[in-house]
Structure formats: C-alpha cells, structure tokens
Design a protein that fits this description.
The chain has a 15-stranded antiparallel sheet that branches. Strands 26-27-28 form a three-stranded antiparallel sheet. With 608 residues, the chain is an alpha+beta fold. Among the domains are: 181 residues, Beta-galactosidase, Chain A, domain 5, CATH 2.70.98.40; 164 residues, Glycosyltransferase (Alpha/alpha barrel), CATH 1.50.10.10. It has 15 helices and 28 strands. Strand 6 and strand 7 form a beta hairpin. The protein starts with 7 loop residues before the first strand and ends in a 9-residue tail after the last helix.
Length: 608
C-alpha cells in the first residue's frame, strides 16, 4: 500500500529529487532532471513500478529527522535485534547524480535488506542488469543507465537486485546508486563518507548566509522552507520547479492530477521576494536571469510555465500503465496549461522585475526593452477572457484576478518611470492602469454580495481575490476589500481553511468533476489580509495552524483535506513554502514585511 503523502521525505541534488517514505522506500526518482522519466515510480503505482527499499528484515519502529540545517535524512530503526541509523542524501551534483544511503549500527546486530527495483520510463521498462565487479552492478535500458555499488552481498531475485547484510554496533555500510548516459562508461566511484561530509557542509554553509534575526523555532521553520525551495532549484539555470512530482491527486481517486515539474511565472514575485528577504541574493539573481531567458522572444508567445531550461513545449500525455496514487487516474506527464492564455502572468513578470530593480539589481537595457514589448502585448490582450490563475479547463472567462494583475503590470511600469528613471509612454500606461482599475471596480464587484467576484457577472467567490490588497490594487481598509474578505470567510472556509473556489458550484469554471482539498497558499494569503486589517491575533492563530499541518520534517503539499487530515496534491509544493516564508515575514513583528514592500511606492520597507 502506498504511503500517505505526508509520510514522504525529500532528497535532492539541485537538479532532481527523490521521495523516501517512513518505511525506507524511495518511491519516486527521476534521472537526470526533475522532468525526466522516473526510474522509481511506485509512488504512482506499486513496488513493481520501481522503488528502492532499505530497511531491517524484521521491520521495527522508526524516528526520523533532517540533520540540523541540512537535507540529509536520518532515520533511526529499532527492533528486538537492536538499532540502526540510516542516512539518506543526494550530494549536490558533481559530474553525475548519486543517491547515497549509509547504514550504521547503533546497538546490537540488525539484519538489513536492500531491495532495488529499477523500472525506467515511469515504471514501464525492465532494464538489463549485469555484474561488472564484486561490489558493482550496472543497469541499462535505452538512453539510461545506473550503477549500483555496495560492499554488501548482492544477488538477483524476482527481477530485483537484493542485498542482505547484518549490521553490528559501530559498523557502517554504504549503498550508492549513480545515473549516467548508457552510451558512456560508469562514472568514477565516490567516497560515501566524504560525500556525506561535503553535503552537510554545503547545506550548513548555505543556511549561514541568512542572518535574519530569528528565534530557534522560527529559524528552523523558515530555513526548512527555504531549503525546500533551494532543493527544487535546477542549479544549471536557476529555474525553480513547482514540485518534484506529477499526478499526486487534489482529491483521492479523482482526476485533478497534474504534472508540476516545471517552472511557473506566477511564482516569480513571491520567489524573488522570499529569497531576497532571507538574504539569498545569489539565488534571486539566478531566478531573475532564468526568467529573462525563458520569456525572451515574441511577447505574444508568453507562456505561464516553462521547463527548467526554459523549454516551451510541455506536451501533456497520459501513462495508462500506472494505476495512480491510491487509484487516482489519469497519471499525466507534461502540462497542457502551458498553452493557455493567462493574463495575470504579465503582471507577475513586470512585478518581479520591478522588485528586482527596487532591491538594487540594476538597469539592463535588454530587460527593460523586453518589458516594454510585454506591455505592448498586454495592451492588446488584457480585455480578452482567459483561463485564469487556476488554469481552468472549462473555457475562458473575464477573471477578476487576471484583470487586477494586468493593472499591476501597468502600475509597475508607471512606477519604473517615476521612481527609477526608465523611459516609456508613461501617460499611456497611466491611462490604461486607471481604465483597468475602473473596469474591475465596476464589473468585478457585486454590490449585493458586498464583494468582488471570481469573474465578471458571476456570483461566485475566489480566493485569488485575497491578493487585491496584497498587490496594492486597493487597501485592505477599503470597504469593498473588507467585504470580500468577509465573504470569503463565509463561503470558502472549510474547517477554518480556504478553498480556491467552490468546485461544486453550478457556474464552476474548471470543467472538471467537483471536489478537492483546501489550497494551502490561499490560507496564507488570508493570514496576510488579517495582518493588513490589524487582526493580528487571527493572523497568528491561522499561521500557527497552517504551520502545524506540515509533516514531521516541515514539508507541505499543495492542498489539505481537513476531514481526513491528509495532505493532497504534488509534494512538497514550492508555492506553499513560498507563501509560508512570505507570511512568516509578514506576521512576525520584528521581521521585514514583503507584502508591504511589494506595493510600497518606492519598493522600500515601511514600518511593520
């Protein structure tokens, strides 16, 4: 039986990632990139679709943690035979990607079993395995190859590679799995102990760059989310994937199963501000450069997401041989939403580059020229219906959030001229900004409801309306904004947490069967709105509850089921951790506030 989503831990080497459950099974791993085919796909099927189990033969109880300020996972196993410690990690990528597992005897003598089931192409292809040395086996199919090295005795059993060894107190036995292109020779072996020391040093040095004053618990909370974002970064380009997984369901047994192993422009501003607030300027600069490269070209071709290298073609297809997580089908690879028109991304790109400039990332003529072209394209498209922030598949509408973000695009352009000395038709931009603002206030507000609505002419609410004060479209004190927040509290709260919108509504725009969990970033937005309204106790209470939904390692998925008390959706989710970091800075009184900085006229930090 597949583990619960929250039972997984994340490993990563800044180019791909693995998920390992409490029972010692790595059930998901794509080589060599986040978006490559999986060689372990048991997460979306069964052990025969690929996994790597390393656990005591007789089982036992476990206790796990990340070693302080690292992404090295430590699992302590205890049973009647004794106790062992397993260290799982992926060293930051050298020439080849490695997964390293080290077993250490703590007490007594414990029998351990490693069961390696490799199935390339998302669990479909059984590879050719051969022994090339006493401690080495190679695994090959098509373009992919793996090298498995361990001093433990290894043998084949039922299309599996099995190792069995008894670990005595004080003994350490390593297992190393390395990917390489099948047309090349296996990479040189690494020293697992040296790799462990270097991996620990890498993460501790990286965390040491953040000197924001934090108490112990606050520090651990923020640093873990920031490490998740770093782990989801594709280091060669600076792109950050939304999640390392595909098709983890938003409703168990449902069809809302999407591939999130790509980079969304919608995350741009939050990503930039989170990294800058935490003093990780190098990563912020790399993300900005990735953004500029990805969107270069004809502005009419702007996409909402790209591959980690800036790839545009993310063709969506299904994998019928995989039964899906707890029977949730279909399993999808690629994402057809990449072909949708979503007007809001223009605002996200303009806001992100404006914030970068406000934080001291200087003027680049080609960047500003690109932004002007984006604005020209937006002038032609902002009045068109689109698929909106939630990437609906029920046809385009005039989504209020999309129009608000079109306003953001022109607002940031005007500010760039007024505050940063950029050149452009500022009078035209002001006129467009004001026209969009007036239209949204006229057509996007329902006086009977006392609230803005999801789309023009619709009575439905949408949690994206919580962003209206966060981007500076209207202040939180405006009666229309207060009414919107109150309406969302009445209509979109489920057990005190925020739904994106009512998927069961007669006018639901998404074109899919109803049902999903609460969307965790939306609940963090509500925290931010409470803070802007001066409802500090409500903000802190909701923030603490949201943080408490994370698993024992501090990891959060995209959604949550408050009744079943289970995490849902792709995991761990960058958008959720970005929202957590941003809200932490907003609600903790001694920290700088990104929501104030985001819509401050000069990008500065006003008093908190």
């Amino acid at each position: 039986m597949t583990s619960r989503i929250e039972d997984y831990a994340l490993l990563g080497d800044l180019q791909t990632a693995a998920l390992v459950d409490r029972n010692g099974s790595i059930d998901w791993l794509c080589f060599p990139r986040f978006d490559s085919g999986a060689c372990f796909a048991a997460l979306l099927g069964a052990p025969e679709h690929g996994r790597w189990l390393l656990a005591p033969t007789d089982g036992g109880t476990t206790n796990r943690r990340y070693l302080h300020d690292t992404m090295v996972l430590e699992t302590i196993w205890e049973n009647d035979e004794g106790a062992v410690r397993v260290l799982d990690f992926m060293p930051p990528r050298g020439r080849a990607p490695d997964v390293v597992r080290i077993v250490e005897g703590v007490r007594g003598s414990v029998r351990m079993r490693s069961e390696l089931v490799i199935r390339f192409d998302y669990g479909r292809i059984v590879p050719w395995v051969r022994r090339v040395a006493d401690d080495t086996r190679t695994v090959i199919a098509g373009p992919d190859a793996l090298c498995f090295r361990t001093p433990a005795h290894t043998f084949g059993e039922n299309m599996r590679t099995v190792s069995e060894v008894t670990i005595d107190e004080g003994e350490r036995v390593p297992f190393v799995l390395t990917w390489f292109p099948s047309h090349q020779d296996p990479p040189a072996r690494i020293d697992p102990e040296v790799a462990l020391a270097e991996t620990e040093s890498f993460w501790r040095d990286w965390n040491a760059r953040c000197t924001v004053p934090l108490s112990g618990e606050q520090r651990d909370l923020l640093h873990r989310s920031l490490m998740v974002l770093k782990t989801l970064t594709y280091e060669p380009t600076g792109g950050i994937v939304a999640a390392p997984t595909t098709s983890l369901p938003e409703a168990l047994g449902g069809v809302r199963n999407w591939d999130y192993r790509y980079c969304w422009l919608r995350d741009a501003t939050l990503t930039l501000l989170a990294l800058l607030q935490a003093e990780h300027g190098e990563e912020a600069a790399a993300w900005r450069h990735w953004l500029l490269r990805a969107v270069a070209g004809d502005p009419a071709d702007l996409q909402i997401m790209y591959g980690v290298g800036g790839e545009r073609r993310l063709t969506e297809y299904e994998l019928p041989w995989l039964p899906g997580y707890e029977g949730s089908q279909p399993v999808r690879v690629g994402n057809a939403a990449s072909e949708q028109l979503q007007v809001d991304v223009f605002g996200e790109v303009m806001d992100a580059l404006y914030q970068a400039r406000a934080h001291g990332y200087g003027f680049e003529p080609e960047s500003w020229a690109l932004q002007r072209k984006l604005l020209e394209a937006l002038e032609r498209t902002w009045e068109e219906p689109d698929e909106g922030i939630w990437e609906v598949r029920g046809g385009p509408r005039h989504f209020v959030h999309s129009k608000v973000m079109a306003w953001v695009a022109f607002d940031r352009a005007v500010r760039s001229v007024e505050l940063h000395g950029m050149e452009g038709p500022v009078d035209d931009w002001r006129e467009l900004r004001d026209r969009i603002h007036a239209q949204v206030c006229e057509l996007g507000f329902d006086a009977k409801l006392g609230s803005f609505t999801q789309s023009y002419g619709s009575p439905e609410l949408d949690a994206s309306l919580l962003l209206i004060p966060l981007v500076g479209f209207l202040p939180a004190s405006d009666p229309r904004v207060r009414g919107t927040i109150e309406a969302i509290e009445r209509e979109l709260l489920w057990e005190g947490l925020v739904l994106r919108y009512r998927t069961h509504a007669a006018e639901s725009p998404d074109g899919l069967p109803s049902g999903e969990g609460v969307f965790l970033p939306c609940s963090f937005w509500l925290c931010d709105c409470y803070e802007l309204l001066g409802r500090h106790d409500d903000a802190h209470a909701l923030f603490e509850r949201l943080v408490g939904l994370s698993n024992d390692l501090g990891l959060l998925a995209e959604e949550y089921d408050p009744v079943e008390r289970r995490q849902l959706g792709n995991f761990p989710q960058a958008f959720t951790h970005l929202a957590l970091v941003s809200t932490a800075f907003n609600v903790l009184p001694h920290l700088p506030s990104p929501m104030h900085r985001r819509h401050a006229r000069d990008g500065s930090q006003p008093p908190h």
